[in-house]
Structures are given as C-alpha cells and as structure tokens.
Design goal:
The structure is a single chain. This protein is an all-alpha fold. Helix content is 64%, strand content 0%. The protein has four helices and no strands. Helix 1 crosses helix 4. The chain is globular and about 40 Å long. It starts with 5 loop residues before the first helix and ends with a helix.
Length: 90
C-alpha cells in the first residue's frame, strides 16, 4: 500500500541517481511538500528535517550566505532521508 512519503522517496532516488538535478528536486519537493497531507507526526518530522535543508539550498556559491546549503549538503540530507525512510519499512 502506497504511503504518503512515497512520492518524496521517488524524487529522492532520482536525485541521488543523478536522474534529477538538485534544482529539479528542490522544485518537485517543495510542490509535493505544499500538498502533503495524511502524514503521521513521525512522517512529518522526517520530511520536515529534509524541508529545512531544501529551503536553505542555494545552488550558486556566489549567492550563498552563511547557513545556506550547498549541493553536497542537500545530497547528504536526501541520502539521510532515504536511509531513514527505507530503513524503517518492513
């Protein structure tokens, strides 16, 4: 049975595999996040951790301020999200 995090897992896998740019991941993630409903408190917590990194992501180093996330930080957060979600599935 599909879960509410499944669309996020799909785009996360695509980003990690290089099939989706990080800018594309950012746009798709934010659109999905805006429409997400039916999340448990645990699922929202997992997603919210990734949201904060996505929100802080600035692709261009020249535009980045202290505290903004670079590509490596976003990819690390996406990988951590996948480990957390996929590690907790039966």
């Amino acid at each position: 049975m599909p879960g509410p995090l499944d669309p996020f897992v799909v785009i996360a896998r695509r980003a990690v595999a290089g099939q989706l740019t990080l800018e594309g991941f950012e746009a798709e993630f934010l659109a999905l996040f805006k429409e997400a409903d039916g999340l448990s408190d645990v699922e929202f917590g997992i997603l919210n951790q990734l949201f904060h990194v996505v929100e802080d992501y600035v692709p261009d180093a020249a535009d980045r301020d202290p505290g903004d996330a670079a590509a490596e930080q976003l990819l690390d957060a996406v990988r951590e999200f996948l480990r957390h979600v996929e590690g907790s599935r039966p």
